[in-house]
Amino acid sequence: MTYEQSTDYLLSLLGARGQRYGLERVTRLVELLGRPDRALRIIHVAGTNGKGSVCAMIDAGLRAEGKTVGFHSSPHLVEFTERYKINGQLIEQQKFADIVAHVKQGVEAMAAESNDQLLATLFEAATAIALCAFRDAGVEWAVMETGLGGRLDATNVVESELAVITPISFDHQEQLGHDLASIAGEKAGILKAGSKAVFSRQKPQAAQVLAERGRVCESIVWADQVWRVRKNSADSRGRYRILVDGPVGKCVNALLALPGEHQIENAVTAIAALDAVGVSAEAIESGLESVEWPARLEWLGSEPEVLLDSAHNPAGAASLARYLGDFCADRRITLVFGASKDKAYGEVARILFPLAERVILTQAAVSRAATAVELRDAIGSYAGSVESASTVAEAWELASRDCAPNRLVVISGSIFLAGEARDLLLARSGSHA
Question: What pTM does this model have?
Answer without folding.
Answer: 0.92
